[in-house]
Amino acid sequence: MGDRYRLDDWPCRCRRRGDAVRQRTYPFLPETGWEERTTGIVALDATDGSTRWLFESDATVNSSPAIDGDSVYAGNANGELLAVDSQEGEQRWRFEADEPIISSPAVTDHAGGTVYVGCNDGYVYAVDSEQGEQRWEYDTGGVVVSSPAVASDTVYVGSTNGTVYALDATEGTVRWRFETGDEVVSSPAVVSNRVFVGSNDGNLYALTEP
């Protein structure tokens, strides 16, 4: 079904779970007027870095925003998937899950517009991009911090139960799954019908549909 590559053999060695994590410090903050830590989504001018708008959330936003048309989508530590107007910074809708959303959403035009996102409650959610209504959910049995990748009509995502899932984009049913040797917290990339994803077992996997 796929190939496996040991990352220890590469010049860039993979650090495994449990190893010491180095703290990173940043030498400066941009002069945007929001130097204090904020819990929300900020839009910056691409030319000079000035703040265009700031949407304040009730909890920290750890996921990377996804932009589609005139909407910005992101999850927060309260388990909320937020849709914000990309021009004005005003909330359009809010979808509530049971645990924090660290996974970054993926947005497609599938079924008229769908947002796919993982959650710490173990579920992958498909949400209508216009109304914020749930279309389906799939329980992986682990924590989903991996960000979904969508290709054609399939959603690819990893879970901390060590499994990579290929889910039907419309129904949320499992098309296939692949078990690795440890947690999968990295996000899949799909290139030429192959799914590339790393695992905490120290391997990079190249997977194809069985």
From TrEMBL:
Which InterPro entries is this protein grouped with?
A: PQQ_b-propeller_rpt, PQQ_rpt_dom, Quinoprotein_ADH-like_sf, WD40/YVTN_repeat-like_dom_sf
Q: Where is the Pyrrolo-quinoline quinone repeat domain?
A: 38-139
Tree of life domain: Archaea
What protein is this chain from? PQQ-binding-like beta-propeller repeat protein
